[in-house]
From TrEMBL:
Listed name of the protein: Outer membrane receptor protein involved in Fe transport
Biological source species: Chryseobacterium geocarposphaerae
Pfam family membership, one: OMP_b-brl_3
Range of residues in the leader sequence: 1-18
Domain Outer membrane protein beta-barrel: 296-728
Swiss-Prot/TrEMBL keywords: Cell outer membrane, Membrane, Receptor, Signal
Cellular localization per UniProt: Cell outer membrane
InterPro entries: Beta-barrel_TonB_sf, OMP_b-brl_3, Plug_dom_sf
Amino acid sequence: MKTPILIAAIFFSGLTLAQEKKQDTVKTKTIEGVTMTKQIFKKQSDRFVYDVAASPVTKGNTTFDLLKQTPLLSTTDDKTLKITGKNNALIYINGRKTNMDAESLTQFLKNTPAENIQRIEVITVPGSEFQVESSDGIINIVLKKKMSDGTSGNMRMSNSQNKYNSSNASFSVNYRKDKLGINANLSGGESINPQSYILRNRTGNVQNESVGDIDDPNKNIGGYLNIDYQLTEKSNLALSWNSWANKSYNSTINLLNTITRYDENGNLASTNYTKTKNKEDARNYNNSVNLNYELKLDSLGSKLNLNAAYLNYKRFQYSDNNTMIKDPAGDFTQNSKKIIQDIPQIINNFSGTVDYIQKFKNDFTFSAGGNFNKTKTDNDTKNYTYPYDISGNQLPSENDFNHFIYDENIYGVYVTFEKKFSDKLSGKVGTRYEITNSLGTADSWKNNVESNQKIERNYNNLLPYLSFNYAINDKNNLSYSFSSRMRRPSFWELNPVKNLITEDNYTQNNPFVKASSTYNQELTYMYKNSYFFILNHTYVKDQITQVPLQRSYIDPKTNQERIQLAYIRTNFGDKQEMSAMVGIQKTFFKQYLTTNFNVGVQHNINDGFLNTDPTTGQVFDDYINNRKSTSVVIQTNNTLRLDKKKTWFLGANFFYIDKQQIELGVLKNLMSLDLSLKKNWNDWTFAVNVNDVLRTNIVEIEDFQDNGNYNYIRNDQYRRNLTVSITYNFGNQKVKKVRDIESASDAIKNRTR
């Protein structure tokens, strides 16, 4: 289903030498030999730079495949990318954040040829000029600069098989003529996302277990259109439109629930069974438009950049939740309880940004800017509960309605100073000042009794930033960065809706969640642009997470003890993460083997306490997480060229994440082995990928509380899959790419995920 049961943040200029032999003054010169050397991976100021244009792994890959093989980057679900030691990785293109929602961005990256990319920049600690939250890092994709007019494009088709079959297709085209550039994409696909769950919890003498499957069918279609026009030699005007639609009808949950009761001596007293059969129909639409104006002020790179944007997001979700008990024949056909939920959400955002960059001849850069975001979300939730008597007769419904409207205004300004003091030393200092005003109103009707809530928050934040980079010599480089950031809750986290999993198991969002503060420090040492050592420390105050709360209660219908388990979205104390990592990115045997390997240690310190649902006031047993953990992380990506002509490639990627303490308990170790075979033939690329070969990428979380409460989650999302893809590139491959523009609504769009 669409509603997450848990969210676990898992960290994780060439030189050519030619010897020419001159035979005489008349004969043509002949080149005796050419040797090319180029730094593929290096540290620059505030970022790591991976020059993929000089790497043999680019040809025939998708951008997503290439990012998975980039040093410091990883993915555990083949959907989201993470930077080591960071919560999220935000995607930028040519220094501008992509104006897409999470689903369409994944499809875009999986359908964009890696041949278009010049380099990938990994910014682990973004400066004040970037609108990012929490400990987010940035992946900046720099496209190749093409020199001629014309038309080019690519078509890609893929088919995947895990538990079910899925297919995707995309078509992209680029056009440039004189001052006009047009870039468009259309992609779509069908899939069924399967999951298998084991949910087990115990308090006192009662244990509850739910075992079963979730199947989530999806149909997607989306695309983008970017139009860029050069007004003068110094100014450009651009219009960008992005759209994505998802339809997920007949999503199902089928779980067998077992309630086991024991006496005071631990002997089995009774066992009861029920079945959960839920069906959900959902669809969502995401449309955004952005108008950009850029004025170049001088030949040094000074410029003024203006953006105005509008974002509209709609989601409609209708679910039918049924608890079934056995009929006299022993079959689960009799209803015990039915709950119908209608959960729509509409988000409208108007935003604008101004960025001014002034460069001076003495290697000094001054930047200043501001942003404004006005967002309104409308959530009109309706719950209809239909109880049944012991004979299976439906009783009058119990209605629970909640209309939640959330208004938020964010004002931000920043200033940065960047200076290159010498060929060895450079630094940057800056700060952001943000003002946030929000008002949430909830009008509720429960069994025809009206209640009203108003949640108003106004806060200001000063967020400093500092970094320096020191090149000790040609082989050794040292850098340090510090930043402070905020993390505002996503809009779906604020919507006070209860999403049912079973009769006694649900997730609860929370309109009282406040923004958390994050402080990041990072020290990096690099040797020969191939070997690196990174120390990282992150401190999160009032972290936003999901907390498992449980309690026992007496069922009034059966007069027996039961357990309720709720995953509550809230602020949950403070957290620290410390990590140390060493790695290598290098090619061997005349570029026949390219390897990226890193190994590290991460230490987590948790400090949180909760026993009450902030939204409903329901009191649960104490949940305490004040534990520490130390874990090992290993990742390696390897590409082996199988022939001299560079047409056959074999890939072998592996990651291992040791068990570690997170908010929900102890996350057991995760690992995955991925293999691929690729063939390049003229403008065609044929590829076969097998992910999670050993079927070891399965989430397991276990928690023991001092009061005796126990909680266990096993989530299998069928990561093992076989994918076959065909890509065809056509047209003039020297076509210049359209200018990629950062939308003013990008910071808001990320919070709709």
